[in-house]
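Morning run. Coffee first, then this:
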Amino acid sequence: MSPNTWVIEMPNQKTRLHTYPRRVSPYRAPSQARDAFIREPPPAGPDAPPKTSDHPVFEDIRTIMAVLKASGLMPIYEQVSDYEVGPPTKTNEFYSFFVRGVVHALTIFNIYSLFTPISGQLFFSYRETDNVNQWIELLLCILTYTLTVFVCGRNTKSMLRIMNEILQLDEEVRRQFGAKLNENFGFSVKFLVGIAVSQAYIIVLKIYAVQGEITPTSYILLAFYALQNGLTATYIVFASALLRIVYIRFNFINKLLNGYSYGQQQKRKGRRNPNPATMENFPEDSLFIYRMHNKLLRIYKGINDCCNLILVSFLGYSFYTVTTNCYNLFVQITAKGMLSSNILQWCLAWLCMHVSLLALLSRSCGLTTREVGIYISDKFAANHHKWFYLQANATSQILARVYAKAIEYKNIIDKFLTKSIKQEVQFTAYGFFAIDNSTLFKIFSAVTTYLVILIQFKQLEDSKSEDLLPETPSV
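And here it is:
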C-alpha cells in the first residue's frame, strides 16, 4: 500500500445498527420542488405514459441540450436506462459529423471574405481605428466558434462519461439516502431566449446601418456571425448548468456532514428524531461520503478538461467585445454632432449579452469551487469538537468540526482531512487563470486599461486629422 493511501475501518455487518442501504437524508422531508431528480415508477396498464427521452437530472436543461445536439456541439446519445446513456448511433454520429463539416467550410469561406473587399460594406465607421476593431472582433467570433465545434467533437466520449458518472452518482444517492436533489434551472431557458432575441436585434441593426444594397455574401456572413455568437453563448450557459449540478451534489454531502457537527449533535440531545444522524452511523456514512466526494471531484475536473480551451477562447473574445463596445460608447458620447442611435443600440445589446454571460459563468464557477475546493491550513487541532481555522473549503470546514468523542471517529476524521491537505481544486481557463467570482472584476479592470489605450489612439488620430486641415488665411 502506498504511503498516500488510507483506509477507513468500517464496522462489520454484525455490528451495524442499520441494514444497508440506510435511508437518511439531510433534508428533513421530501420537497415537492425536488421531485424532478427522482423518476417515479410509471403506472402499469395501457394508460401508462410514454417513457421520457432524458433522465430527470437533465430534464430542466433539455431545451438547451436539444439546441446543442442539433448544432453538433453535443452527441445525440441513446438512452440505455434511467441511469445510463449510450454512445450515438451511426446515423446520429454521421449527422453531427456532417454539421461540423459544414461549420468548418463556412468558417473558411467567411475568413476568405474578411480578407477580401467583399465584406467591406459591413464595416462602416467614422474612424479607421473603429473599422479595425470591428474586423478583429468578427474574426475572433469566427475562430471562437470554430474552436468550440472542434473541441466538442473531440470530447464526445468525455462528455458522455461525465453524464454517466452524474447519473450513476444520483442512483447511489437515491439508494443510500432516498434523497431528491433538484434545483430550478429555469435560468438556462431565460438565457437561451435572451441570446436569440439579442442576436436577432443586432443583425437587424446591422442590416439597417449598411449603406446601399446588401450582397448575398454579406447576408451569409451576417447570418453565420449571429449563429456563431448564439451557439457559443449557449454552450457557456450549458457549462454553467453542469457546474450547478455538481454544486448541488457537493452541497448535499456538506449538509449530510453538517448533521454530525458538534452543534447539530447538541441540538439533537433530548429530542425525538425518527432519523437521527448519530455518531454511531458516522463510520458507515463516512465511506459513502468519501467515495461520493471523490466522484464529484472527478466530474468537476472532467467538466473543466472538456471546457478549458473553449473558455480561454470565449473569455478572450468576450473581453475584446466588451472593450470595443465600451470604446464605441465613449466615442458616441464625446462626439460632436456625430451621435448615432444605431451604434448606441448595437453597443448596449452586445454589452448586455456578454456581461450577463460573464456574470453567470463567474458565479457558477465560484459557487462550485467554494463548495468543492480543498485547501486546508496546516493548523487544525486534534480535537474536532471545536471550530478551527481553515483557509477555504466548505466540506473540510464542516468535517473539521464533526463531534467525535470516540478515538475511532477521530481517526476517520483525521484521515479524511489529511487526504485533503493542500489538494488545490480550481476551475481554470486551460490553466492560465482561475475562474471564480473575482473573474468579472479582473476582466473589467483589464477592459479599463485597454480602453485607455484605445482612447489615446483616438486622440492621436484626431490630432493627425487636425494637422492635415488647411490653415485659413488671415485677413
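Strands lie at 78-81, 84-86. Good start to the day.
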